[in-house]
Amino acid sequence: MEDKIRREIITTADGSKTIHLPELNEQYHSKHGAINEAKHVFIKSGLYHTLDIRSFNTIDILEIGFGTGLNAFITLLEGEKINQLINYVGVEAYPVAIEEALYMGYPEVLSIKEKESVFEDLHQSIWEQAEKITTNFVLTKRRQFFIDIEDKNSFDLIYFDAFGARVQPELWTSAIFEKMYEALKKGGVLVTYAAKGSVRRAMQEVGFIVERLPGPPGKREMLRATKPE
Length: 229
Hints:
Layout: E1 8-11, E2 17-21, E3 26-27, H1 34-53, E4 58-64, H2 70-82, E5 85-92, H3 98-103, H4 106-109, H5 116-124, E6 131-134, E7 137-143, E8 155-160, H6 174-183, E9 184-192, H7 197-205, E10 209-214, E11 221-226
Parallel strand pairs: 4-5, 4-8, 5-7, 8-9
Antiparallel strand pairs: 1-2, 2-3, 6-7, 9-11, 10-11
Helix pairs in contact: 1-2, 6-7
């Protein structure tokens, strides 16, 4: 779908950029701050919550919607800070062009211009192949529709960062969340910026234990789902 729609790069409230799709009135990240949203939803409520529950030699993360690579990049940086090994799989049906991704300028906004080459490596890595980006971070990018995911008991954490249910309701159904449930190991966690009641009910329908949490800037709530042990 995204290949056919006009795209604009806009600056969000925290100074970081995102891609806006004007015909859909939708964007890849929150207009209230792309970096702030990534840190709150996926790092604070996802990565650090999961690491608080148990310790890992290597934590296996699946991202639904690799997009601009922002979530992967911030996760890589956090892994370096705490010396955590991370195996990261990013699924994207419509990859962002490398030139477009690099124009986001996330290393500069984060005041780590020395990491520009690392951000470039995320986007220049070969699709469908595991690549060691840093000592602590292995990335596999998969060009795949979410409904075609067939992983079983493979991941400790899922970042669910698809376009919103208003735009693509088919990505927020029990059929999709059943795929996510099966992909997680027992005790695994899924986090998303979404908080709609229909999304929460779809998660519960397939067996998740679902929590409402305070949302990132501009959103009152978000959801975190756990697969029972």
